[in-house]
């Protein structure tokens, strides 16, 4: 089954968690709507770029160089 995460995605870290949990994609409508309200089309572009940069930083901190390499081993297991 294909998993898409919609809702609760507010940062690049959330995107990474969703992908590590097995999601094939994240739907980031809230960020886009906030960007639209704050700055129109340019605001949407800025919001998506911010999410991308946050995801890049999260991946770098986890030692991941590309999105397909994100997996369940990048999640903290409950004790």
Indicate the mean pLDDT. 93
Order of helices and strands: EHEH
Rounded radius of gyration (Å): 13 Å
List the strand order in the largest sheet: 1-2
Largest pleated sheet: 2 strands, parallel
Residue windows where pLDDT falls under 50 for at least 5 positions:
none
Structure summary, number of beta strands? 2
The number of helical runs is 2
Alpha-beta classification: mainly alpha
What is the number of independent domains? 1
Rough outline? globular
Strand content: 5-15%
Percent of residues in helices: 40-55%
Distance between the termini: 28 Å
Concise overview:
The chain is mainly alpha-helical and 79 residues long.
Give your account of this protein's structure.
By secondary structure, the chain is mainly α. It has one domain. The chain has helices spanning 12-20, 29-61; strands spanning 4-6, 25-27. It has a two-stranded parallel ribbon. The radius of gyration is 13 Å and the shape is globular. It starts with a strand and ends in an 18-residue tail after the last helix. The mean pLDDT is 93.
